[in-house]
TrEMBL record:
This is Nucleotide-binding universal stress UspA family protein. Residues 1-141 form the UspA domain. The lineage of its organism: Archaea, Methanobacteriati, Methanobacteriota, Stenosarchaea group, Halobacteria. Belongs to the universal stress protein A family. Gene3D superfamilies: HUPs. Pfam families: Usp. It comes from Halopiger aswanensis. InterPro entries: Rossmann-like_a/b/a_fold, Universal_stress_UspA, UspA.
Length: 141
């Protein structure tokens, strides 16, 4: 049984499904919703790594806070406590790094269908997290 669950959350229907799944199936677990402010590819030439913490402009911070507020509302509807985190970087790297830093037992992530045939069943971020994560990953479709 998972005691601490990390749910990458961007406000999309698959992310909402993942959050709801975590609440419904792990009633005693501490749940953390993580929003990753993605850094544009052009900035990655300057510095790469899961520890990267570039400053986030105020608009991106407000947007992330609004998205996580919707996650908090979902938690409140289910009478659950939810911790939230905002980080910057490459989403798959930051998700895995946060799971390690927070000693998560499980990552519950939503799958995103893509037009590309190879990404039809599993979104590229979810796929990379599954490949890189040192903890189990549950993909919600």
């Amino acid at each position: 049984m998972a005691d601490r669950i990390l749910v990458p959350y961007d406000g999309s229907p698959p992310a909402t499904d993942a959050l709801e799944y975590a609440f419904e199936n792990f009633p005693d677990a501490a749940v953390v919703a993580l929003y990753v402010v993605e850094i544009p590819d052009s900035r990655w030439a300057q510095a790469i790594g899961p520890e990267l913490q570039l400053s986030v402009n105020e608009r991106a911070e407000e947007y992330a806070s609004d998205i996580l507020e919707s996650a908090t509302e979902i938690a409140d509807e289910r009478d659950r406590r939810l911790d939230t985190e905002i980080v910057t970087g490459e989403p798959d790297h930051r998700i895995v790094a946060q799971a390690e830093e927070q000693s998560a037992d499980l990552i519950v992530i939503g799958s995103h269908g893509q037009a590309n045939i190879s990404r039809l069943l599993l979104g590229s971020v979810a796929e990379k997290v599954v490949r890189r994560s040192p903890v189990p990953v549950l993909v919600v479709r």
